[in-house]
Amino acid sequence: xxxxxxxxxxxxxxTGLALILLNGCANVGTPTxxxxxxxxxxxVEGEPENKTVDFKGEEISITFxxxxxxxxxxxxxxxxxPLKKRPDIRIRDKSIRIRxxxxxxxxTTYTINFGNxxxxxxxxxxxxxxxxxxxxxxxxxxxxxxxxxxNAFNKQPADEKDESVLVMLYExxxxxxxxxxxxxxxxxxxxxxxxxxxNVRADTFRILALKDANNNLMYDPGLESVAFLDSFLIIxxxxxxPVTFIKDxxxxxxxxxxxxxxxxxxxxxxxxxxxxxxxKLNAVNVSLFYFLEETNKVFLDxxxxxxxxxxxxxxxxxxxxxxxxxxxxxxxxxxWYIKESSRFGDTLTYWITDSLIAGRDxxxxxxxYLTTDSVQRFVERTDTFALRFLVKTESGAGSRRKQEPGPxxxxxxLALTASIARRGIQNLNQPIIIKAEKPLGTLNxxxxxxxxxxxxxxxEQPFTILRxxxxxxxxVIKTTWEEDTQYELLLKPGVSSDIYGVTNDSVEIGFxxxxxxxxxxxxxxxxxxxFPIMVQLMDEKGVVVANKYLxxxxxxxxxxxxxxxxxxxxxxxxxxxxxxxxxxxxxHVQPEQVHFYNMSKELRSNWDxxxxxxxxx
Length: 617
Hints:
single chain; mainly beta; Immunoglobulin-like; 5 domains; five-stranded mixed sheet; five-stranded antiparallel sheet; disordered N terminus
């Protein structure tokens, strides 16, 4: 998206902040001998001094007690309020020199926050969260906004691979302000999601948190994640509270951690994690939960031809209507594909059933689907593309040799994979799932032999066979299990065939069922003022292992659980569609509320873990 305003410069990642290193008269290097330096640079003086009022100048010089450097300044350094033009930042010996290149706002307090950019040259001791403040008025504004910004769905801070989340205060209280203008004040979250915006004047503001993907300091709905408060943020001397704010932890190498080490000089020294000194603030504290709005704008995200007979497509979101695939460079008198759709319809797989069409190296196609235009009107869009299948060929001297008759071509078979491995342990509450490479054509239960082995005797095991309603390539074998018992499953040739008529080879699996006292249970009694609630039980890796849907207060039983630690996620299903729904900024709709419960102990075998959990708003 093209920024709606040009010429806006603010000192965060991607803005191209200029840093010019000038060589001074003295050579800067690591001194030989003497004690190691373990302290960060110390602020000595400024021109003007830090927290100067009635500032009328164009340049600022900040001097420290040793030679310093700026690292990751494009990412770390920020000026609030944002400047319209790019300032010049230079390092000279022990000083940082800033030429502002801007006409400053009257009666305004400016804060230059260096984040974790400043360190000394020799030992790289970090000076975290250093701020230089000045005012164009006759006083320094001293109020702050602090808080935490988390993902609305998982209550976690932004991933390390993501950029920090910006937090913005707007004087203009109109809903549209964040879409068309830059904020009055700005801050940035730490890796733990904490933020503070300091030196704010008493006033009423609109507050937003934004993952500013295009660096224009404005919100682009549907393209950028956003968080907002339901009400305006009022900041005055009467509603702030004194706090000691610690934004993050930093890593240093202290004398204690170095002392007495006998390791080689070249070996890396582990750093201790130390809490950075806290700042004494008078602040209003807020919690914000960011989300990506669901948009009606649909586009084809990926398209490929993995094999001759398989076409694979993904959309940014489920299409609003049925997507239609049509050929351009071929025709067919009959249906030439079978379509397989993911549960929510955002992934489509087309299996070509006509061998002549599958044999073409290039297929020219169109995909037609419903989307919205720039003014949110529903329109039909058609994408045109060509999908090629490239046959891999061997290269090198061997490929140039005269081809000699090789072994006979092996008959093609349909590969089947079972959810239980040979000599594996089968869970008592689960069926056996058989997965095929390609969509199934026929199933023949008479070609399945299933036996239970007990006391040296063999018994036929009754079972039923069902197709998977969500996956055309799977079928399910259901039975009633006996605990701690051996079973043998034989899939004879011809149990199944794919849509091309290719049948399976023989598959034989011997396995044992789990003991019933291996499992534990979680007995969850859930209370809330709002229902229905989706309850998800998750393992330590965050994988959902079980789901419950509660329409009123009561108990949910999760049984047949392997011993381990679990957590529980509860989602208030506001619109009763059985999935989590995001919010909408302009409609003042927050995302559906999510709550988490972390078990304090590990679930043990043959044990009931009782939980009484009352959700609060």
